[in-house]
Specification:
alpha/beta, EAL domain, c-di-GMP-specific phosphodiesterase class I (Or its enzymatically inactive variant), EAL_dom, TIM Barrel, two-stranded antiparallel ribbon, Cyclic-di-GMP_PDE-like
């Protein structure tokens, strides 16, 4: 979502991966990734995730799409990412609307390797984002080196920010980092209007979270509430 004054507008969607068990229950990405690691099939799963996400992205039409990827599954970007890039081209998706997002749970020991992957994406016309900045492996100090197009403030610093000065300091720090590196700052995990309003007052313009919509099989075309400009879509 993007916020402009009191208006909210859907500007993009994050495409999420979920598995379906034999009993019809949902399997989280975490459990699928762990199973793939144990079987040395991480690259195959990551590739399947990316290709299916690209297929689903064709339904978005001229809005941004955020697609997660697993850096440690990619050993040579010019080879490993070729089928993904070819499919994007085949489906006529504007590369500039595609944002590849580093999965926060995947710790990359060699940042030079990750930078090489991200440079390959950017050279192909795509954008890239760092997820959950401020927690886990994507700390703010890495942003200077990786130079992402978008940095996402982690949900831990968004939920309840109106009542927590430490979270407010973290949100300000990310804004300053984004301004210094030329990235756009996005707040994820927004679930309460008061948190949304405070973040907007700080200077955030991009948001995503259950306050706007929950994950669903088809992209949201419009918000039920009156408004119009500051949100991200999840499908």
């Amino acid at each position: 979502m993007k916020k402009n004054g009191d208006n909210l507008k859907i500007i993009g969607h994050e495409i999420l991966a979920r598995g379906i068990a034999e009993d019809g229950s949902t399997i989280s990405p975490f459990h699928m990734l762990e199973a793939a690691r144990m079987r040395n099939r991480l690259f195959s799963l990551d590739r399947a995730f990316r290709l299916k996400a690209v297929e689903n992205a064709s339904a978005v039409q001229e809005k941004m799409v955020f697609i997660n990827f697993i850096p440690t599954a990619i050993y040579a970007p010019e080879h490993c990412l070729s089928t993904t890039i070819e499919l994007i081209d085949k489906l006529g998706i504007n590369p500039g609307n595609v944002v590849f997002e580093v999965v926060e749970s995947d710790e990359v020991q060699e940042l030079g390797h990750l930078k090489n992957i991200l440079n390959h994406y950017r050279a192909s016309g795509f954008q890239y984002a760092l997820d959950d900045v401020g927690t886990g492996v994507n700390h703010i100090e890495k942003t200077d080196y990786l130079q992402p197009d978008i940095v996402k403030l982690a949900r831990e610093y968004v939920d309840g920010i109106t009542e927590d000065t430490i979270k407010q300091e973290a949100a300000h720090a990310l804004l300053n980092t984004a301004a210094r590196t030329g990235a756009r700052a996005l707040s994820e995990g927004v679930e309460r209007k008061e948190d949304l309003d405070m973040l907007a007052e700080m200077g955030y313009e991009l948001f995503q979270g259950y306050y706007f919509a929950k994950p669903q099989s088809k992209p949201v075309r419009a918000l039920e509430e009156a408004g119009g400009e500051r949100c991200l879509w999840r499908a």
